[in-house]
Specification:
- By secondary structure, this protein is α/β, with parallel strands linked by helices.
- It contains 13 helices and 10 strands.
- Strands 1-2-3-4-5-6-7-10 form an 8-stranded parallel β-barrel. It has a two-stranded antiparallel sheet with strand order 8-9.
- β5, α7 and β6 form a beta-alpha-beta unit.
- α1 crosses α11.
- It is globular.
Length: 290
């Protein structure tokens, strides 16, 4: 029998066999710089921010495709001012050949800027398949959401799963990032117990400055107690350094049980550090396999 550490390492590298990355529309130069360290065919999500316009988002998706990766444009329901806005975006993606995969999210605005309050309302339009979408990503929140109660989150996941299956469209879940494996896998087990068998990509922060990680964690309601962040590999009393997800991924690999948790992959939130994240992933795999 292999030692536990060897088993954990092997699983840790397999989790990285098909990881995905996230970028903003303004990160194209960073993607150009990092292209040689990112495996061809990697799925790269392109966020839908309020300070970026339609042309910037479309151009970013085109760049992802041109560089040999798979674009996954985000659509933020609450940032769409009208059905025409939604159709213009989908039409642009279809024209560019970048509409196969999208990720739907409610978005940050407290009040919708148009007719769509959440991702479910986008699915309900029936427009996705019409414009060539084949696979839809939806969000999961292992540690909850700062402005949505738990009951509503579970209902939303169930309803989106059912609506996508009815169309039918392929689907998968990407979770909010976290620092503690235990609540993540407990949430995955709950997802499975509720009959949702979709592939799940576990959100993981790419290597970043501790202050930046703390700022994003506070924004998204991610647990950051002293014991949790120590387990992850840094301290709340020393915010000057950087932290990577080494410990998190090894703990996830060691605890992952396919019979209970189903198919799991990794999604990196890069926080602008595409190159740093792709370099880290390459080094982690090399060191783990050495």
């Amino acid at each position: 029998m292999q030692p536990a550490s060897t088993v954990s390492t092997a699983l840790g590298t397999s989790l990285l066999d098909d990881f995905s990355l996230e970028m903003t529309g303004k990160d194209v130069p960073k993607l150009e710089e990092a292209r040689d360290t990112i495996p061809p065919g990697t799925r790269i999500n392109v966020t839908f921010l309020g300070n970026e316009d339609l042309q910037l988002r479309l151009a970013a998706a085109r760049a992802v495709k041109r560089l040999g990766f798979v674009p996954v444009p985000h659509v933020s329901a609450r940032r769409l001012g009208s059905r025409d806005d939604f159709e213009r975006f989908l039409a642009g993606l279809r024209e560019d050949g970048t509409s196969d995969n999208v990720f739907l999210v409610g978005g940050d605005p407290a009040h919708p800027e148009g007719p769509y309050a959440d991702a479910l309302s986008l699915i309900g339009t029936g427009l996705l398949r019409e414009y060539g979408v084949r696979h839809v990503g939806i969000a999961g929140y292992p540690e909850g959401h700062p402005s949505i109660d738990g009951t509503a989150l579970w209902s939303a996941l169930r309803d989106k799963h059912a609506a996508l299956a009815a169309q039918p469209l392929e689907a998968g879940v990407i979770t909010q990032f976290g620092f503690d494996v235990d609540p993540v896998l407990a949430w995955v087990e709950e997802v499975r117990s509720r009959g949702v068998g979709l592939p799940i990509r576990i959100g993981v922060p790419g290597p970043a400055g501790v202050r930046r990680l703390m700022a994003y964690a506070a924004r998204f309601g991610v647990g950051t107690s002293a014991s949790v962040v120590k387990k992850y590999g840094f301290s709340l009393t020393n915010l000057m350094g950087t932290a990577g997800p080494d410990r998190f991924l090894r703990a996830l690999a060691a605890a992952h049980d396919p019979a209970r948790h189903g198919e799991l992959k990794i999604h990196f939130y890069t926080f602008g550090g595409l190159g740093a994240t792709s370099d880290w992933a390459a080094r982690f795999r090399k060191d783990s396999l050495a």
